[in-house]
Structures are given as structure tokens and as C-alpha cells.
Amino acid sequence: MRVALEFLYHFCCDHCQRWWSQADVEPQPGDQLYCPHCGFQNRIERIDTFRNALRGSCLIRPPDGVSVESGKQST
To answer: For residues 44 and 47, what is the distance between their CA atoms, to the nearest angstrom?
Structure first.
């Protein structure tokens, strides 16, 4: 069996706060990139792990149908 690992990076625009993902890129702090939504030129300040990135990021909305209190899918 062969296994392949894919790195998926999530970016959040400093201007419009919308986010997007890119696979198999290696961004570095200091790199500049344009937001595909609003065109703002962002500069990467740091790269957080997924667990740390969830704290205080633009990805704070729970998935549809998940109760914030229980963390369980509602029916």
C-alpha cells in the first residue's frame, strides 16, 4: 500500500476576513499573497498549527447543525 501526505493551508484575509485553502504550498512568514476574494495584498506573519489557528481566527463559526454547548450534531 502506498500513502501520500497532503498539506492543506488555510489563509484568512486581514482586510475582508474571508478565508480560502491551498494544498501543497509551503508559505513562509514574510511571504505576500493576494486574497482571491477582495484582492488585498496580505503578508504572512506566522503559521499556526490547526489547533492554535482555531483560537481567535476567522474559523470560529461551528459547522451547520452542531450545538455549541454540546458539540453534538443536532437532528
So the answer is: 8
Residues with Cβ within 8 Å of residue 7, at least 6 apart in sequence: 23, 24, 25, 26
Name the grid cell of 20: 480560502
Contacts of 58 (CB under 8 A, 6+ apart): 12, 17, 18, 19
Which residue's entry shows cell 485553502?
Answer: 21
Tens digit of each residue's pLDDT (9 = 90 or more) over 10-23: 899 999 999 999 99
Residues 7, 14: contact at Cβ < 8 Å?
Answer: no
pLDDT of 26 higher than 70 = yes
Q: To 10 degrees, the CA torsion angle through 30, 9, 54, 40?
A: 50
